[in-house]
Structure of Thioredoxin:
Amino acid sequence: MSTVDLTTADFETTIADNEVVIVDFWASWCGPCRQFAPVFAAASERHPDIVFAKVDTEAEQALAAAARITSIPTLMAFKDGVLVFSQPGALPSAALEELITAVRGLDVEAALREAAAGERQGA
């Protein structure tokens, strides 16, 4: 599957309707973004069961602000509608593959229970 462009109008629906969504926040003037684009596109071809989405931060400024994007490229990964990874910077291909493997294997419900238990202990 090739990458899809996300807008404010379809962002939440895309996240909610797909098991795994990996989002690249980028801009055309950003050198690291342009260098990362072929790595992201190649991963989308290797993993057709995952939605690989791109958000042009210039065209979608409100969406970028809502996502609290302060540096580009920023990569976000969602599983079962939950944000499970967010990091600025372009990843090399091997690191992106490691991220994909980790997201696929993540038990979101268990992770949420663990996080809630940790918060209760710290309170």
The domain at 4-122 is CATH 3.40.30.10 (Glutaredoxin). Helices lie at 8-17, 31-46, 61-66, 93-105, 108-122.
